[in-house]
Write a structure and sequence with these properties.
The complex is a heterodimer of chains A (355) and B (464). With 355 residues, chain A is of the alpha/beta class. Chain A has eleven helices and eight strands. The radius of gyration of chain B is 25 Å and the shape is globular. Classes of the chains: A alpha/beta (355), B alpha/beta (464). Chain B: Keywords: Lipoyl, Oxidoreductase, Pyruvate, Thiamine pyrophosphate.
């Protein structure tokens, strides 16, 4: 059994990356981001929105309003918020796997549209035809939302290919989990991305468990940030439970990639509090392990302490929490009361053109 | 005793070639490994090496000769120790003249003729394509040139179009289909990939989602099995899953179906596989004009297209209309030959067999109509049913397996929607239901052929 402490690298900065094996240029060691009070408040707000949104989604699932697979992001909020705060919505592309609600919220996509998709309603972002795992917003350059483990890594490499082809200055960020990091196409993509110097940030969200299989039981090299080394892709290991450490690493990565130096790999050490999906009883780890992470390294509590140190009062945070709860509850009401798609929608959007 | 040098087969489908250049002359001494000549196939110029030692006794085919059949004796090498070996060869020596006649017959069993030879047909449509304006000038074009021209024209017209795949750029295409594209469009738009089908199919699909118009070449569709997840799960389903928000305008193209003597893993028709998937367009042209007009349409389509070519047809020459912008409609079958007694439906290489069969049947008084489906999804059932209404009898020809095939789909459509028009059960003529064997004789009996088509037509017309 993995110890809770493995979920939490040393506080503050990520652990130093070992000396390079060659004299190839490497990215600078990331430094923890020094956020202003307003910036940190914004991060806190987004993380809280994701947390409350996911809690509500869990409730709606329990009530039978959300069906199928539903993978919650609770515990991992600092990753999407910290990384995407360094990107430009509508210019830089983001793609992820099936655990996608958090990445969408962190890219400014309306909670109502996401929640209504989860309940399978016409007003959902995919008009009710995608569901939890298949949501997209081309306008934001959020490209899903993919249900096949690892597929988003090659697709994300294609997004980066487009940025380079069109020379539009954008970068692509492709998220995948510790489980997906053992898929073959991830390495096919690493190879092409480095060969063609594509502007892509590969992000491994290492939440320690690929469904029920721990990293140690599935990965011969469990230091996943090293997985790009044989393709000459530099890797950084980052404390994914500290939003400012995440943002610091994001800055390093974005700088590297935008400078045309090719891809970079980030391993974010994080933890999901809930099961793999709603139907996962999570017998593969103890309650104590989960509780220990919640108590010691919760990303939202961490940011809260930092905010208090910057002079934010308990009352301010209470007000914010109220506001967030209102947004989420409105999203849930919308998602419950919106109509299901019309039956004619069954046949729409199979093809774009008419033949 | 002189060793005969014969025109070599330099690829599985090569039947003849050009003896471009001799690098030795009569009287030269050669040893194993020396380059003797350059031979041009329809795909590339290859060097021809000596495997024997000796002196070039005579050159029988002059350089620059076109259309030299595989197996033709092109030169004789006199062995160095001919005299020492003389006693052994004494017996046949008194009759050198007949000997030169003999080899063809004597060595016939050694030449393992491919079963795919019987698939090769030069048959052409008898009825003009209504999509081509009357009086249009026709240009003799090979199918591979037609495909290349389609890509080049669309690349000139739209910056978003690019070609990616194994050996498409510097090598000029494994089957020479992308020849010349690198020179015209440069390495930004004609991109060699590593051997990594799943990966580059995903990269192409992602680029299409982001707004580009990729043409992804698979060296053969057999290798696309490694990538089928992206074709189906990523490309075909995206528009639907996104509620019409995220498109995937991509073309996956390459040779499909049986090639020649390449065995089971390299010989399969994926038409039925892809045609079963909603969200995909599946095209399988027969002649060069269709290949050009339909590939251009595929590149312009806003939907993901699987474009199935056939290696055995690449080198065939057909008439292609000389038009500035020849684009054909997707989803429309074509009547290749009009007839009243029976309808033969086919697609891709099977169309040639259907046309050949129709010609032979005509001599026996059976007037067959031949339909080329051209697009496998969406299927033009209206054209098929209209023909059935006219002829009341139908045979479907498919170079592929029978089970869950395009043929079985046509049979189902005929039964469900054309039952009252049927005077006989619809028959399918397909490959045998086995992995394609390597042995020439087995390969031959595993594949569809004209005789089987004729037999099926006779059965449904009650003339068998």
């Amino acid at each position: 059994m993995a110890r809770a402490s493995t979920a939490k690298p040393a506080k503050g900065a990520a652990k130093p990356t070992p000396a390079p094996a060659s004299n190839r240029e490497r990215p600078a060691e990331p430094v923890r981001y020094e956020a202003s009070k307003d910036e940190l408040m914004a991060f806190y707000r987004e993380m809280l929105l994701i947390r409350r949104f996911e809690e509500k989604a869990g409730q709606l699932y329990g009530l039978g309003l959300i069906g199928g697979f539903c993978h919650l992001y609770i515990g991992q909020e600092a990753v999407a918020v910290g990384l995407q705060s360094a990107l430009e919505v509508g210019k830089d592309s983001v793609i992820t796997g099936y655990r996608d609600h958090g990445h969408m919220l962190a890219y400014g996509i309306a909670p109502k549209l996401i929640m209504a998709e989860l309940t399978g309603r016409e007003a959902g972002i995919s008009r009710g035809k995608g569901g939890s795992m298949h949501m997209f917003s081309v306008e934001h350059k959020f490209y899903g939302g993919h249900g096949i483990v690892g597929a988003q890594v090659s697709l994300g490499t294609g997004l980066a290919f487009k940025h380079k082809y069109a020379n539009d200055g954008g970068v692509a960020m492709a998220y995948f989990g510790d489980g997906a990091s053992n898929q073959g196409q991830v390495y096919e993509s690493f190879n092409m991305a480095e060969l063609w110097k594509l502007p892509i940030i590969f992000v491994i969200e290492n939440n320690q468990y690929a469904m029920g299989t721990s990293v140690n039981r599935s990965s011969a090299e469990d230091q996943l940030y090293k997985r790009g080394e044989s393709f000459r892709i530099p890797g950084l290991q980052v404390d994914g439970m500290d939003v400012l450490a995440v943002r610091g690493a994001a800055n390093t990565a974005v700088e590297w990639v935008r400078a045309g130096k090719g891809p970079i790999l980030l391993e974010l050490k994080t933890y999901r509090y809930r099961g793999h999906s709603m139907s996962d009883p999570a017998k593969y780890r103890s309650r104590d392990e989960v509780q220990a992470v919640r108590d010691k390294s919760d990303p939202i509590e961490h940011a809260k302490r930092d905010l208090e140190a910057l002079g934010v009062t308990e009352a301010d945070l209470k007000d914010l929490d109220k506001e967030i709860r209102k947004i989420v509850s409105e999203a849930a009401d919308f998602a419950e009361s919106s109509p299901e798609p019309g039956l004619a929608e069954l046949y729409t959007d199979v093809l774009v053109d008419t033949y | 005793m002189a060793v005969e040098l014969k025109m070599p087969a330099l690829s599985p489908t090569m039947e003849e070639g050009t003896l471009a250049k001799w690098l030795v002359k009569e009287g030269d001494t050669v040893k194993s490994g020396d380059i003797l000549a350059e031979i041009e196939t329809d795909k590339a110029t290859m060097e021809f090496e000596a495997v024997d030692e000796g002196t070039i006794a005579s050159i029988l085919v002059a350089e620059g000769t076109d259309g030299v059949k595989v197996g033709t004796v092109i030169a004789l090498i006199q062995g160095e120790d001919e005299e020492a070996a003389a006693p052994v060869t004494k017996a046949p020596e008194p009759a050198p003249a007949p000997k030169t006649e003999e080899p063809a017959a004597a060595e016939a069993p050694k030449k393992a003729a491919s079963g795919t030879e019987k698939l090769a047909s030069d048959a052409k449509a008898v009825v003009a394509d209504p999509d081509i304006p009357a009086g249009t000038e026709m240009v003799k074009t090979t199918l591979r040139e037609a495909l290349r021209d389609a890509m080049a024209e669309e690349m000139r017209a739209d910056d978003r179009v690019f070609v990616m795949g194994e050996e498409v750029a510097e090598y000029q295409g494994a089957y020479k289909v992308t020849q010349g594209l690198l020179e015209e469009f440069g390495p930004q738009r004609v991109i060699d990939t590593p051997i990594t089908e799943y990966g580059f199919a995903g990269v192409g699909t992602g680029a299409a989602m982001a707004g580009l118009r990729p043409i992804i070449e698979f060296m053969t569709f057999n290798f696309a099995m490694q990538a089928i997840d992206h074709i189906i799960n990523s490309a075909a389903k995206t528009n639907y899953m996104s509620g019409g928000q995220m498109r995937c305008p991509i073309v996956f193209r390459g040779p499909n179906g049986a090639a020649s003597r390449v065995g089971a893993q390299h010989s399969q028709n994926y038409g039925p596989w892809y045609a079963s998937v909603p969200g995909l367009i599946v095209i399988a042209p027969y002649d060069a004009a269709d290949a050009k007009g339909l590939l251009k349409a595929a590149i312009r389509s806003n939907d993901p297209v699987v474009f199935l070519e056939n290696e055995l047809l690449y080198g065939r020459t057909f008439d292609v209309p000389k038009l500035d912008d020849y684009v054909l409609p997707i989803g429309k079958a074509r009547i290749m030959r009009a007839g009243k007694d029976v309808t033969i439906v086919s697609y891709s290489i099977g169309v040639g067999l259907a046309l050949d069969a129709a010609e032979k049947l005509a001599a026996e008084g059976v007037d067959a109509e031949v339909i080329d489906l051209r697009t496998l999804r969406p299927l033009d059932t209206a054209t098929v049913l209209a023909s059935l209404k006219k002829t009341n009898r139908m045979v479907v020809v498919e170079e592929g397996w029978p089970t869950c095939s395009i043929s079985s789909e046509i049979l189902a459509v005929a039964m469900e929607q054309g039952f009252d028009d049927l005077d006989a059960p619809v028959l399918r003529v397909t490959n045998e239901d086995v992995p394609l064997p390597y042995a020439a004789n087995l390969e031959k009996i595993a594949l569809v052929d004209v005789d089987r088509v004729i037999k099926a037509v006779k059965t449904v017309t009650y003339k068998g």
